[in-house]
C-alpha cells in the first residue's frame, strides 16, 4: 500500500467526520450567473443530458485542489463543460471560441456604456 | 412516481414481482455496511464503512445504483435504499454526547449485509 | 457578505459595469451553445429560474404550521412527506422524496449532507452557504451537540439527537416543536415563527415572546 492510495479511494467531497473549523454562518444572495448555473443544472437533469448524480461525480472528478479553491457554482460550470466534452455534446474548441465571443460582446457593451 | 415512507406491499399470491421490487432486507434487520472501497464515484461516505446499524425504513421507489448513475447511466437495474439507524457510539468511539444519539442515512442494497 | 469558498476567503466584488468574470463567461458560453444546438430551450432556463425564485422557506413554514394545527395532515405528512407537500400545492420539480422528521420532547433532529449539499429545495429553496461548506458538513455527523451549541442550541442529555445524512434520493425537513404560548394562533401567525434554520434543525422555532421583542 502506498501513500497515494488514499487519494484515489477517498473522494474530495467525502468529509463526514473530518476535523474542521467552527461554523461561520455565512450566506449570500446568489449572483445572477450563479442562479442561471443552478437553473442550467436542473434543466440538464430534466433532459438527462447531465443527471444530478453525474454532476456530483463531475465535481469530485475535478480533484481536491480545484474542489477546495473554486466556489460552489464555479465547480459546477467547469464540471458541466468537462462532462459535455466527454459525452461529445460540445468540443473544447467550440467552448473556447464561444467564450471569446461572449467576452468580446461584453467588452463592446461596457465600451458603449462608457461612451 | 410514488414516494412512500412505508413498508412496500407484499405480493398477492400469483403476482410475480420484477427483479429488485422485493426488498432484500426487512424492518429491524441488523445490517453491516460493507467495507468496500470503490473508486471513481460512490455515495456511501467513508465514515460509515464497516459499521453496524438497523433498518428503520425501506425507501421507495427503487432506484438505479448511484455509482452507475454518476457516469450517465439513466436506466437499468433498480434496487431499494434503506434508512439505517446507527448509534453515534458505533461511528465514533470517542463520542461524548448522549449514548442515545444516533445517525440516520440511506444506504443502497448492494452495500448491506445481514448480521 | 459575498461568496465564500471552502477556505472562507471572499471572492472579489463584481461591479456590473466591469466585464463578466471567467466563470460567468463560461456559463454563458455553455448555455448558449446548448441552446444553439437545440438541446435545451432558452425559455427553459428562464422558467426554471422562476421555479427556483418561487421556492422559499415560507413554503416549509406553511407546511409546519399546518401540521401543528391539523393532526390528520401531520399524520399524512409524516407518512409521506412529498405527498403531504403536494396536497398543499407545493410540487416537487425533481425526483427526490421527502421524509419529514418530527422533533419531540425526546428527540431532536438535524439534517446535513456530508457528501455535497442535498437539501429540500422544493420546500425551502436553495441552502445557505454555511450548509454547503466544510465545517458544517464534516462536523454535524460527528459532534452534533457542539455544532448545535455554535447555533446557540443546547439540547439536554436526555433528549436523543438524530442526525440525518442525506446521500441519495431522499431529502429531509425537520418539523420543529410548536412553541409554548401559541394556543389559538392562526396558521399565518404560527408560520411566522418557523425559520429556515428551525427546519434544518439547528435552532428551535421562535417563541412568540422573542418574535414580539424589539
Structure, explained:
The complex is a heterotrimer of chains A (115), B (115) and C (214). Chain A has 115 residues and is mainly α. Chain A has one domain: Cyclin A, domain 1 (Orthogonal Bundle), CATH 1.10.472. Chain A has six helices and no strands. Chain B has 115 residues and is mainly β. Chain B is built from two helices and five strands; from the N terminus they run ββαβαββ. The longest helix of chain B is centred in the middle third of the chain and has 4 residues. The N terminus of chain B is likely disordered. At the B-C interface, strand 2 and strand 4 of B face helix 5, strand 1 and strand 3 of C. Strand 4 of chain B pairs parallel with strand 3 of chain C. Chain C: InterPro entries: CN_Hdrase_a/SCN_Hdrase_g_sf, CN_Hdrtase_a/SCN_Hdrlase_g, CN_Hdrtase_asu/SCN_Hdrlase_gsu.
Average residue pLDDT of chain A: 94
CATH superfamily descriptor of the largest domain in chain C: Nitrile hydratase alpha /Thiocyanate hydrolase gamma
Topology, number of strands of chain A: 0
Order of helices and strands of chain A: HHHHHH
- Give the overall average pLDDT of chain C: 91
Element order of chain C: H for helix, E for strand: HHHHHEEHHHHEEHHH
What percentage of amino acids of chain A are in beta strands? under 5%
The appropriate CATH architecture of chain A is Orthogonal Bundle
Oligomer: heterotrimer
Strand tally of chain C: 4
Low-pLDDT segments, ≥5 res of chain C: 1-10
CATH top level label of the largest domain in chain C: Alpha Beta
**Global outline of chain C:** globular
Biggest sheet features of chain C: 2 strands, parallel
CATH fold-level assignment of the largest domain in chain C:
Nitrile Hydratase, Chain A
Count of discrete alpha- or pi-helical segments spanning 4 or more residues of chain C: 12
Protein name (chain C): Nitrile hydratase
Family (chain C): Belongs to the nitrile hydratase subunit alpha family.
InterPro entries (chain C): CN_Hdrase_a/SCN_Hdrase_g_sf (IPR036648), CN_Hdrtase_a/SCN_Hdrlase_g (IPR004232), CN_Hdrtase_asu/SCN_Hdrlase_gsu (IPR023900)
Keywords (chain C): Iron, Metal-binding
